Amino acid sequence: MKLSMIVIFSILLGGCASFGKGIAEAVMDNQTKHDTRICEVRGTPFSGIEPYLSNNNGRMKLLMVHGVGRHMPGYSTQFREKLGHQMGLTVQARKPKEILLTDPEDTGKNLGTLEVHRLLDEANTRELLFYELTWSPITEEDKKVLSYDNSGKYSYRRAHVNDLMKQFSNDTSPDPMIYLGNKREDILTAFQQSFCWMIKAYWDDLPTGTKESCNLLTDEAVRNLENDKLAIVSHSLGSRITIDAMQNIAQKIGSIAASKQATSIESRFIEEFRSRKLPLFMLSNQLPLLQLGRTLPEVVGQKEAYCKPEGEHFGQRTLTKTELIAFSDPNDLLSYAIPEGFTSKYLDSRLCIEVTNVIINVAEVMDLFGIGKVANPLTAHIGYDSDDRVVALIARGIGTPHTSPLVKQRCTWTRLID
Q1: Could you state, in order of their start, the residue ranges of all structural domains in the chain?
Q2: Counting beta carbons within 10 angstroms of the beta carbon of residue 191, is it exposed (0 to 12), middle (13 to 18) or buried (19 or more)?
Q3: Mean pLDDT on 318-328
Q4: What string of H, E and C letters represents the secondary structure of the chain?
Q5: Tell me, what's the pLDDT at 13?
Q6: Is the pLDDT score of 2 beyond 70?
Q7: Where does the pLDDT of residue 11 fall: very low under 50, low under 70, confident under 90, or very high at 90 and above?
Q8: How many angstroms separate the CA atoms of 124 and 229, rounded?
């Protein structure tokens, strides 16, 4: 039994570091070489982002939002490069644009970093602008209250494996609590500023190496919103941040419209925003978990009234459609599929959300010496952005003529209808 526990802990730690690599590989050697990991897609078809790369009038723009834990600019490199190669975008700008984010109402604040990468094909006819938001500096100061626990004064008393796990816990578990506290508005502002820069400017017009705030209410932003295609990829807590920010936008648009005092530029922006479809690819989806104890939005349970052309409030919607594609590994202890009725009860009806669940094993399921089957829950939580099937689904969707052969071969799809 002691040997079994050592093996289990070694495998658990392998998701975040290479500890136990040798014994994990020994276990893997006993497994079949045929990849039988599940990939089940249930919901409505979605196109992914590749069909919009050839846009003569605008650009395809993708924003990535990380989850819990300390992140440094560049954290999305593996995912970004895999995504680019999946779509034949093998040319990149030598240096990214870097914007130091701040609050427009308090420019002394440091709200993290937005890195912008430009990806092209060899003929320069297909382009992706990739925006990487790093918001974790906002929570760093608060997490220092636990720094003493990682010091030798306390950590030397722990078993080595337990100490590594405690350090990981001290880095990641505070973020949801901090987000629900006094840093929530700063984190949401970091997202909203990143979203603003994504809409407002193209590559040549973006600032770099400076701290600047962004204003969406400009002719340039409205013109770009009319022509560009937008998408968001988020991970764990980043998905909650994304949904909260979009619900804030819904509330602001609703308030402006209700006041009947919108300026000309506000009216143009709102009208154009309402015509948009926005895909949200949520990796290690945690919306059901992070909904617990939260106040409901001001408009729920009224999707038909807001989202169908014949609906009573169709002209007051925020978006024409929000495609919510939720990825979850059943062996990820912290991710969840989105159940039937969840969006109607808990999310803002004005976002017109359509849900597709992707139930996928990103971690290998192994036979642990006949004791039982086991999968590394840490790999199951963080392995999405390196999984070729996940990347192919984001790039080329499912249920359409351009679906990736890999997805057709490795994933099953059940189309759900009303």
Answers
A1: 1-30, 36-415
A2: buried
A3: 96
A4: CHHHHHHHHHHHHCCCCCCCHHHHHHHHHCCCCCCCCCEEEEECCECCCHHHCCCCCCCEEEEEECCCCCCCCCCCHHHHHHHHHHCCCCEECCCCEEEECCECCECCCCCCEEEEEEEECCCCCCEEEEEEEECCHHHHHHHHHHHHHHCHHHHCCCCHHHHHHHHHHHHHCHHHHHHCCCCHHHHHHHHHHHHHHHHHCCHHHCCCCEECCCCCCCHHHHHHHHHCEEEEEEECHHHHHHHHHHHHHHHHHHHHHHHCCCCHHHHHHHHHHHCCEEEEEEECCCHHHHCCCCCCCCCCCCHHHHHCCCCCCHHHCCCCEEEEEEEECCCCCCCCCCCCCHHHHHCCHHHCEEEEEEEECCCCEEECCCCCEEECHHHHHHCHHHCHHHHHHHHHCECCCCCCHHHHHHCEEEECCC
A5: 43
A6: no
A7: very low
A8: 18
Dihedral pair phi/psi, residue 333, rounded to 5°: -70, -15
Quote the tokens at residue 388: 């070729």
Query: Highest mean pLDDT range out of 32-41, 63-72, 358-367?
Result: 63-72
Statement: residue 258 has pLDDT above 90: no
Residue 321's DSSP bridge partners are: 277
Residue 333 scores a pLDDT above 70:
yes
Residue 163 has pLDDT above 90, yes or no: no
- 10 Å CB burial of residue 177 (0-12, 13-18, 19+) is exposed
Residues 6+ apart with CB under 8 A from 392: 86, 404, 406, 407
pLDDT over 90 for what percent of the chain? 70
